[in-house]
Amino acid sequence: MKPQQVVEAHGVRLRPFAAGDIADLVEGCADPLSQRFVSSMPAPYTEVDAHWWVEAGAPAVWAGGGAAYAIADPATDRLLGGAGLGNPVPGRSQAEIGYWLRPAARGRGVAAAATRALSEHAFDTGTLRLELLTELENTASQRVALAAGFRHEGLRRSAGQRRDGGRHDLLTWVRLADDPPGPTPRLLPDLPDGVLTDQVVALRRLAPDDAELMYGLHSRPEVVANQAPPVPPTRESIERRCRLAESAWLTGDIARLLIVDVATGEPAGSCGLSYTEVSSGEGSIGYALLPDWRGRGYATRAVRLLADWAFGPAGFARLTAGTVPENTASHRVLERVGFRREALQRGRLPGLAGARLDDLTFALLPAERR
User: Fold this and answer.
1) Distance CA 333, CA 240 (A)
2) Which is more confident, 3 or 107?
3) Digit-coded pLDDT (tens) for 33-55
4) What is the pTM of this model?
5) What domains are defined for the chain?
């Protein structure tokens, strides 16, 4: 690509950086969010750093076979952020795409528009594969990737480096030159208005602040006894589960939800939905309630809400739920929703000290919901 080339598409302008961008560069690159998720930026970011980028840094990216564009407002030409291509692999016709935005430009679709514009320009000039890497907690960037037509491809372990020298995992999102245009369809769409409710219970996505509650729930002996293997979770694992709940939802791995009492706003338990086989549209659900909310029909209501969403907006064709044979309370919940006993798989699940546990499976089809 030629650095002089200006790209205008999808409501944004991509152009070379200029001296007039200095103040906005400092504002955008010194912002805490930019500093958190773009560890290659100097910290603190000063006017000296901005001048270096305009005069030497960006030209060096171009000279090395990459691209370093300013994202500008087409009406005013004011800087909104930056987008670029790096780590080119000519033998694979591959490059890595990245972006950042000034705070005032966020939440308006600018990053997705710039990523789409730069991706299309890269494909038009010979690139065949683009990679976009995001930190696991950077869900805003993950939403940009999906909106720009990138697909989740996997996890790169310890591929990122922190400012303190430590390493962290990165999610890989990929778009190919011959991928269809438009956003990437999601396996697990967002909830309508962020919640599912029957006006008695409500389900909403698990959040980082739910960690203490979730640890207390999933450490209870009767809850642990119905897990396979029946081993209490660590506090660290529960904190990570809550912290990465949105990311797991966006990648299509699992939808984890909190069950809430509508009248009081108090949490009652948790539930989850994940694919067991994407190609056949089969998913699996699980749930657990805190003691004070058991025996009041809350688990049945939560499972019914989850099943309605799964068969509706999420597009599942079949749901299953695995239980230990002794968990008769859970069996009653499933049967009230319409699940039918389908199979007893002997010794399917890991137990303690090398033991094996039986798995009693229930299944539900859309027409069987009660």
Assistant:
1) 29
2) 107
3) 999 999 889 999 999 999 999 99
4) 0.93
5) 7-176 (3.40.630.30), 192-368 (3.40.630.30)
